[in-house]
Design a protein that fits this description.
By secondary structure, the chain is of the alpha/beta class. The chain has helices spanning 19-37, 61-67, 91-99, 126-140, 194-204, 223-236, 250-259, 265-284, 303-312, 326-336, 339-342, 349-353, 364-369, 377-385; strands at residues 2-9, 43-47, 50-59, 73-83, 110-117, 145-146, 153-159, 163-167, 171-172, 183-188, 207-215, 241-248, 288-290, 316-318, 388-393, 398-403. Strands 1, 2, 3, 4, 5, 6, 7, 8 and 9 form a 9-stranded mixed sheet that branches. The protein has a 7-stranded mixed sheet with strand order 14-13-10-11-12-15-16, sandwiched between helices. The structure holds adenosine-5'-triphosphate and magnesium ion (MG).
């Protein structure tokens, strides 16, 4: 455990004039994580666009783990901070590094040194210091090997104006852009593998999200809601604050099933899901809708049918999985912790109502006119009124439940 932490921000070099805002968003999100996982006193400064934290009490593994889920952070380095000795003497640094690597006594570890002079007045070059570190480590631990491209352990050394930081446990952050810095969305979350992965990919690009699930109650039970809540719990750790909307959708599906041609049902259900998602966007002032659609996965995801959904949506529909193969989706689901929740079977009303032969090439005249004498607005309003809204904090804890209202 460490009492110093250095965090670097991803993609700042791309941001031109917006740099300051991006940096501020990242700093605010990190501050919110510290508030929960390190309530003790700490000091903080920004130097060369890296964030430096130090505290008299040690930073916990939970804190560091939570920071790896903050969008926009490139690296999180728990480190030791040494005072600089006079005359550019680095003996204390070399000693600290070598002593801290006793694991190399027993294990052959491939490593490299990465040295940076933040203080450009320091006359020894980074290459020279890096070689010196490599030489000393190999001399002390004959099993160790240097490899600049494939190192499993990186010894990160920074020469700061008054101190020298050493880190051998740098964690890769989530990367991408800070939370909320690129806009906001309502994410349509079903119980499958795809939509949680779609949410993660957009979180990585800085999109702040609320979630919506269309619950076919009373045709399916409440168990699926527990599943959706568990998925939301996992996804909430990539955000500062999360809301989940559970819309009762069974009566609407039942009504539609009686009214439209069987092979059009899935598309029509999806159309109303998109419409309600847009209403929730109005409420939370979101810019877009996110779905887990993937080109060609099922009949509702042909290019043509996806385009029909674009036509009913007032907002842009973001579909980050369009080009993903199923295996790639499953691997990402495993990495973010949603796979083992998604794999649990759940009752699905879409399959209860769905046609055996869903339409692939809809007749546009029928699609545009089937609902001419069919007014569903009262049912949509009633569903929204009964929509449960849950609030979830960055630890994934559900702390509030209320009912949807446009006024609140
Ligand atoms: P997933 O795509 O999450 O694996 P799925 O494959 O069963 O689940 P599809 O029927 O392919 O879902 O639907 C495509 C997308 O439409 C989903 O990824 C999700 O974004 C949205 N969606 C479908 N059903 C629901 C629902 N009941 N509630 C919320 N969103 C839904
Ligand atoms: Mg799918």
């Amino acid at each position: 455990m460490f009492s110093h932490l250095v965090i670097s921000i991803d993609e700042l070099w791309l941001k031109g004039k917006n740099r300051k805002d991006y940096l501020r968003s990242a700093v605010d999100h990190v501050a919110a994580v510290f508030k929960v996982y390190h309530p003790d006193k700490f000091t903080f400064k920004i130097q060369s666009e890296r964030l430096y934290y130090s505290s008299k009490t040690l930073f916990s593994e939970e804190l560091i783990k939570a920071l790896t889920c903050v969008p926009g952070l490139a690296y999180i380095s728990p480190c030791k901070m040494l005072e600089r000795l006079p005359d550019e003497n680095l003996e204390n640094v070399y000693e600290e590094i070598v002593n801290g690597l006793s694991i190399m006594d027993k294990k052959s570890i491939v490593f490299r040194a990465m040295v940076k002079r933040v203080d450009k007045n320091f006359s020894q070059t980074s290459v020279f210091i890096g070689r010196e570190i490599g030489h000393r480590v190999i001399t002390r631990y004959p099993l160790a090997k240097v490899d600049l491209k494939h190192a499993e352990l990186v010894i990160d050394v920074r020469i700061l104006p008054k101190h020298i930081s050493i880190s051998t446990e740098t964690r890769k952050g989530m990367g991408g852009l800070p939370w909320g810095s690129t806009g906001s969305a309502v994410t349509m979350l079903s119980g499958g593998f795809d939509s949680p992965v779609a949410s993660f990919l957009m979180a990585k690009r800085g999109v702040k999200q609320s979630f919506v699930f269309f619950h076919a109650y009373p045709f399916v039970g409440r168990e699926v809601v527990t599943k959706i809540k568990n998925l939301t719990k996992e996804l909430a750790k990539f955000q500062r604050q999360t809301h989940l909307y559970i819309v009762p959708f069974g009566d609407i599906q039942n009504l539609i099933s009686k009214q439209c041609r069987e092979e059009y049902r899935t598309l029509v259900f999806r159309r109303y899901m998109i419409e309600i998602s847009n209403l929730i966007c109005d409420k939370v002032k979101a810019d877009s809708v996110i779905t887990g659609d993937c080109i060609g996965q099922v009949s509702s995801q042909t290019m043509h049918n996806l385009h029909l959904m674009d036509l009913v949506s007032k907002r842009m529909i973001l579909r980050p999985l369009v080009g993903y193969n199923k295996l790639e989706i499953l691997n990402t689901a495993t990495a973010i912790g949603t796979h083992d929740i998604s794999i649990i079977p759940h009752d699905d009303a879409c399959s209860l109502f769905a046609s055996k032969n869903p339409i692939i090439n809809p007749n546009m005249e029928y699609w545009q006119n089937w609902d001419k004498d069919f007014d569903i607005s009262a049912e949509l309003a009633a569903a929204l009124e009964k929509t449960e809204v849950f609030s979830i904090n960055l630890q994934g804890e559900f702390y509030k439940k209320e009912y949807f209202s446009f006024d609140a």
